C-alpha cells in the first residue's frame, strides 16, 4: 500500500509539474484571451469511450471558460457517443443518458419529438432505406435536435471546438470571425465534397498508439500567415461540424457577396439524429 501511495503521489506531482510547464508556454486562454490558469480538453474527454481522448488536444484556458461548458459537454456527449455499430461496447453511455435525464430534463423533452412508432420507422427508412426497419428494431429512434436548448448547446460546442482547433494549427488565439455549422454527415454530400476538396490534410488522432478516428476525426487546411483555418469534423457515423475561422483583417478584406455566401453556407438547418430507445 505504501509503495502504491508513493506511486500515486509521484504521478500527481508529475501531472502538476506538466501543467505548470504547459501554462508557462501557453499563458493566454485560447477561447477568450484572459490569463490561462488551467488546461482544457477539446473535444472533451466525456465524448470518448473510457475517457481516452486524443493526445495533444489540450488547450490553455481560464477557469471560467473551462467550467462554464461542462454541462453542455455532457449534453453533447450523449448525442455524439451514440453509434449504429452496436458491436462496439460503450458501458458509460447509459449513465450519461440518465445523467441528462436527471440534470437536464428540458433537453430530454426537446429530444422526444414523437412517440409515434410509425413516424420513427418512416423517418429511418427515409435516411437509411431498407436498413431503416432493422435500425428501428435495434431500439433506435429519431430525435429532432432543433429545440432551443439543444441548438444552443451544439452551437456553443462548435464555437469552442473551432477556437481550439484554430489555436492548435495556427498557433495563436483567434481574433476574428468564426463560422461553424453543425450538420448531419450524410445529408449534404455535395457540400461535404466541396469542403473535402478544400481540406486535404487529415488529423492523426490516437492515444497510447490506439487510433481514435472511429470516434472523432477531421480533415483541415490552413494558412498561418493569413490566419485562415478550415475543417470538417465528424463524430461517429452521424453528426459533425463545418468550421471556418479567419483573422479580423482578412475577414474585413472579403467582398460583401463572399460574406453573404459564407453566411448562407453556415446557416444551421433543422436536424435529426438517432437516439437509443432509453431516451425516447
Task: Note down, in words, how this protein is organized.
By secondary structure, the protein is an alpha+beta fold. The protein has helices at residues 2-25, 63-68, 70-81, 93-103, 105-111, 117-128, 131-137, 148-170, 189-198, 248-253, 256-265, and strands at residues 38-41, 58-61, 140-144, 176-184, 201-202, 206-207, 210-211, 216-223, 228-235, 239-247, 272-276. Strands 4-10-9-8-5 form a five-stranded antiparallel sheet, sandwiched between helices. A two-stranded antiparallel sheet has the order 1-2. The protein is globular, with a radius of gyration of 20 Å. Residues 1-13 have low confidence and may be disordered.
Q: Compute the CA-based radius of gyration.
A: 20 Å
Counting DSSP H or I runs of 4 or more residues, the number of helices is: 11
Most strands sheet: 5 strands, antiparallel
Residue-averaged pLDDT? 82
Catalogue the unreliable spans. 1-13
Question: Termini, distance in Å?
Answer: 46 Å
Structural class: alpha+beta
The SSE string, one letter per element, is HEEHHHHHHEHEHEEEEEEHHE
Percentage of helical residues? 40-55%
Strand order of the largest sheet: 4-10-9-8-5
Give the overall form: globular
What fraction strand?
15-25%
Number of strands: 11
Amino acid at each position: 500500500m505504501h509503495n502504491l501511495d508513493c506511486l500515486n503521489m509521484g504521478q500527481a506531482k508529475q501531472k502538476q509539474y506538466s501543467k505548470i510547464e504547459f501554462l508557462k508556454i501557453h499563458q493566454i486562454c485560447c477561447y477568450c484571451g484572459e490569463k490561462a490558469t488551467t488546461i482544457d480538453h477539446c473535444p472533451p474527454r466525456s465524448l470518448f469511450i473510457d475517457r481516452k481522448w486524443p493526445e495533444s488536444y489540450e488547450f490553455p484556458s481560464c477557469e471560467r471558460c473551462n467550467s462554464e461548458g461542462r454541462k453542455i459537454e455532457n449534453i453533447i456527449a450523449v448525442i455524439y457517443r451514440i453509434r449504429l455499430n452496436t458491436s462496439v461496447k460503450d458501458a458509460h453511455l447509459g449513465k450519461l443518458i440518465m445523467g441528462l435525464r436527471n440534470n437536464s430534463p428540458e433537453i430530454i423533452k426537446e429530444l422526444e419529438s414523437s412517440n409515434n412508432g410509425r413516424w420513427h420507422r418512416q423517418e429511418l427508412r427515409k435516411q437509411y432505406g431498407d436498413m431503416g426497419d432493422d435500425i428501428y428494431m435495434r431500439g433506435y429512434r429519431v430525435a429532432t435536435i432543433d429545440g432551443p436548448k439543444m441548438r444552443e448547446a451544439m452551437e456553443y460546442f462548435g464555437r469552442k471546438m473551432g477556437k481550439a482547433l484554430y489555436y492548435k494549427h495556427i498557433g495563436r488565439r483567434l481574433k476574428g470571425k468564426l463560422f461553424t455549422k453543425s450538420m448531419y454527415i450524410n445529408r449534404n454530400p455535395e457540400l461535404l465534397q466541396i469542403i473535402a476538396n478544400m481540406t486535404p490534410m487529415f488529423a492523426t488522432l490516437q492515444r497510447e498508439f490506439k487510433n481514435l478516428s472511429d470516434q472523432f476525426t477531421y480533415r483541415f487546411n490552413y494558412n498561418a500567415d493569413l490566419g485562415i483555418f478550415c475543417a470538417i469534423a465528424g463524430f461517429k457515423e452521424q453528426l459533425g461540424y463545418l468550421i471556418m475561422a479567419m483573422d479580423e483583417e482578412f475577414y474585413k478584406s472579403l467582398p460583401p457577396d463572399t460574406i453573404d455566401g459564407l453566411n448562407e453556407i453556415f446557416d444551421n438547418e433543422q436536424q435529426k439524429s438517432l437516439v437509443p430507445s432509453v431516451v425516447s
